[in-house]
Amino acid sequence: MAVQWNNRAIFRLLWPLIIEQVLALTMGAADTVMVSTVGEHAVSGVNIVDNINNLLIIAFTALGTGGAVVASQYIGRKDRRNSSLASKQLVYIITVISLVITLGVFPFRRGLIGLIYGRIEGDVMASAGLYLGITALSYPFLGIYNGCSALFRAAGNSRVPMLIALLVNVMNIGGNAFFIYVLHIGVAGAAISTLLSRVAAGAVVLFLLIPDRESPISLSGIWKISFARNMIHNILNVGIPNALENSMFQMGRLLTQRIFTVFGTAAMAGNAIASVINSFSFMPGNAFGMALLTVVGQCIGAGNYKEAERQTFKIMRAAWISIFTLSLGILVFLEPLVSLFNLSAQAHGMAKSYLRVHCVSMMLFWAFSFALPNALRAAGDNRFVMVVASLSMWTIRVSCAYILTFVFGMGPVGVWLGMGLDFVCRGGFYLHRWRHGRWKEKRVITG
């Protein structure tokens, strides 16, 4: 293997990933917190655009995962030439796709918001349209940053993406303060700050990878554009199922989020704030999932399936403990956390109700639902992950959300209950798949 994955090596990989997740969530929370001074319509507008952005950027996030899996397996084989070739191909395709997404979203932003959310209040639509229009310009830079960061992690270097995330956060929070509090341009200011910080992130990550000829993920010579069909096929073979899975997830999530528009701005604002607070409970889980892509990918590239199993058990145990602890902390300090945001009494109460339901399901099932499948992806078992995720989303989360909310009259809290049931379903299937070893029959690279 390229790296001997003892406890110290895993810790060196994990702690920057966890800090990077904190920084990524801080960036999203900063926009929400700082724009909340403008009003609930601004909070709601930014939140619904964040949901749309998550749907639109999953294409290159999924490709980043595909590139990381392919590169990590070549690194495990100690094949530097092919790992570097895979890195260049990833950057080519991720740039093209992110540009297409930007050109498709920017002119039709208001229509897209209306199509997904239906009829929403005028001031919320104005805020959402403005925020989406400006942030759409950042997709190519965000795509390059996400793809290159995934490559750094595939090589076992999680420190560089963490440092770039720190730069992005400093720029974003400083920009928010300047544009919102000094220039008083509200939602537009938050969007401009996000755009500028993402441009900087994409430029820095390219600057670091292009001149480094010795790295297994070097982008040296990238300007001499040459497409390698077999390598692109390997990347897409992992990336496309991941993209479809995440697309289904985000589409289902948007359909359930639409329920909150029926109950008014207070329900939307309460959901937005609950989402921001709750995101910190699965923050370490995302980091452990990223670590699984690197560790399991390199183990399988080296042909060591026994070590892949051992490391997965170790990382999953730590993931479950960390998520349980953070979710419990949110429940204990629920009132002061929600009070950080400028909400009406009605929205404040709704946010607390949503969080009580969700934290319990997070404690018990989230790690198996969203961290463990990364071990399956790293082994090439991505189609199984996609099928389970898509079926669970539509048959459990979306259906139960509407049934619990409208048929059983539970109101918007039914959306969060449906979410918890989805965790139980998909987590059970992934755990069964891993324990029975069918993933060992899959292949990402051959020869």
Description:
The chain starts with 6 loop residues before the first helix and ends in an 11-residue tail after the last helix. Helix 3 (58-76) runs antiparallel to helix 4 (80-105). The chain is globular. The chain has helices at residues 7-35, 40-56, 58-76, 80-105, 109-117, 122-135, 139-154, 159-182, 186-209, 229-262, 265-279, 283-301, 305-332, 334-338, 345-378, 382-407, 413-436. It is built from 17 helices and no strands. It has one domain (7-441). The mean pLDDT is 88. By secondary structure, the chain is mainly α.
The major sheet is characterized as: none
Q: Detail the poorly predicted runs.
A: none
The geometry reads as globular
- Strand-and-helix sequence, N→C? HHHHHHHHHHHHHHHHH
How far is the N terminus from the C terminus?
17 Å
Helix percent band: over 70%
Number of E-state strands:
0
Helical segment count: 17
- Class computed from helices, strands and strand pairing: mainly alpha
**Mean pLDDT level:** 88
Radius of gyration: 21 Å
Number of domains: 1
Strand content bin: under 5%
